[in-house]
Amino acid sequence: MCGITGVFAFTEKGQKALERLPAAVAALQHRGPDAGGVFSEGHIGLGHRRLSLIAPTAAANQPFSSEGGRYTLVFNGEIFNYKKLRKELEAKGVTFRSDSDTEVLLHLYARERQECLKKLTGFFSLAIYDAEEESLFLARDRYGEKPLLFYKDADKFLFGSELSALISLGVPRELDYTSLYQYLQLTYVPAPATMLKGVKKLLPGQSLYVRGSRVQENVWYRLPFDGEKAIHNPLTYTQQQAKLKHLLQQVVTDRLVADVPVGAFLSGGIDSSVVVALAAREVDKLKTFSVGFPDQPFFDETRYARLVADKYKTEHTELRLSNADLFNNLFGTLDSLSEPFADSSALAVYTLSKHVGQEMKAVLSGDGADELFGGYNKHLAEYRVLSGGAKVEAVKKMKFLWDVLPMSRNSFAGNKVRQLQRFATGAGLLPQDRYWLWATWQQEEDALALLTPESQAAVQNRLYRARKGRVLECVSRKHYDLNHVLCADWRLVLPNDMLTKIDLMGMANSLEIRSPYLDHRLVKFAFSLPASTKVEEGLQKKILRDTFRGLLPPELYRRPKQGFEIPLKAFLQTEGQGLANDYLSDAFIASQGIFDVQQVQRIRQLLNSDKAALVQTKAWMLLVFQYWWRRYMA
Prior knowledge:
Elements: E1 2-9, H1 21-27, E2 35-41, E3 44-50, E4 64-65, E5 71-79, H2 82-91, H3 101-112, E6 122-130, E7 135-140, E8 149-152, E9 156-160, H4 163-168, H5 177-186, E10 199-201, E11 206-211, E12 214-219, H6 227-231, H7 237-254, E13 262-265, H8 270-279, E14 287-292, H9 302-311, E15 315-320, H10 323-328, H11 330-335, H12 346-356, E16 362-364, H13 369-373, H14 377-387, H15 390-397, H16 399-404, H17 412-427, H18 431-439, H19 444-449, H20 453-458, H21 461-472, H22 482-491, H23 493-507, E17 512-514, H24 520-526, H25 542-547, H26 568-572, H27 577-583, H28 586-592, H29 597-607, H30 616-632
Parallel strand pairs: 13-14, 13-16, 14-15, 16-17
Antiparallel strand pairs: 1-3, 1-9, 2-3, 4-5, 5-6, 6-7, 7-11, 8-9, 8-10, 11-12
């Protein structure tokens, strides 16, 4: 696990960016504290920071060049099947000078070019310079587990694992107002956009080939989903369960590959509990870690995590957090964001990763299972809309009541009203509009109202519709069912929210977070299953629960989904209150000229009232953006 960055200059003027390369490497030091290096030759410069998990010796440090010096690689990620690939290469006469997956990858690319990516089991972002061709090849893994950002102008091509590296390399700091508009709806900026105009994220499953001053984009992997084929899957439910059991054990075992100990996050939900149950078969005294909020029982899942830890006799650690603990880690979290990212649970992931990173370099997680098997409440809601019936019609007809009752994410009753209100609103919409409503935190008109007229005018509506349309393409296909919603989540929510969160928060603390559910073999199988095996009335992730029911404490089987959240309202009204008074002050907002002063003033006032739950997410989005703005743009 590492951080990568680089410069490919087209002109003499562009070569000046090479002078900034050491600063870009330094900006990524948290991603790789074990070693760092720079390769520079003429118009090319590659930089690397290393977190050593496989072959932790100097012989595997990067940038890594081939024997004759033709190819040089910088690579962020892990190739779990590298030993098998190495044997195949050795049988063809290839000799190795290290025990690393890095060298295997480089030799494989030298022989097979882009086609080698299809043989890789793991996750990665990479850049390979070919001195003979004077070309640069870049690629990102299938699902976006590892980030890669880039920028091109007439003089140069720049890339890096995080926006901070590109800022260090001197990209223009010009705000993209269309991205800001999306951020105010989603809490993140979805790829390929970033918050800076001209800087892009490489899409999952995409590669770039740079030669001369031309950049060619290619798609090397597409999500293997055919809605009609999934409906007519030939396997019986029992056969589907048997295959899932075999596959998941295999991919968990693969992700334990390392030359250092690997632990596991254990939230108390089905997903991470299954991973721990399977990993405990392979690792004696597996170390597991969970986080809880003893002062806020609605957000605390540690009791369920403890049941699993006790069953499998893991060496379990509970990190029990107060508002003061969250505040103590607030600035560390915000400083790790070189692009605004306002999923508030990142604060808890950062705090947990900071603790775990002091004794481990790698952990397993349960990320991706919800998007594969239908684990979110919106998936159950979609199932109910598509099924119809008297209950659905009754909830829709009572929308007038849900609109006026108090809503909150901070209590059972308030959260239920919130869910009923969103369900009633979405149930009356077309699938595309319903998906966008349930994927966002505020509607388009509300996000637009937060901006000044000048900022609103800077939003490019055509560009916004194109970006939104790319996501909604999944829910526009024939034979629409719940699987199409999962396809859309795989394009939007998983890579841009969930995987961004665990990458940034883990790497901020030099911790690699690996999820077995993101193995491409398991993903292909899951998307071949009909929606009926995933969600039924009152039961989400049905096939996952049924397949592994015998491995889990019975309390977990019928337990409803609980999102991994923090008590945001309580935090913003206590230790975080001063932050709002500073970053959302009338003076700061007015001098900045981006947001409407009166709209922000209203949010700040409601935040200090009994209606804070209505604006807590809006306030957090603004606070995260403001902190970023002051640090990078002011």
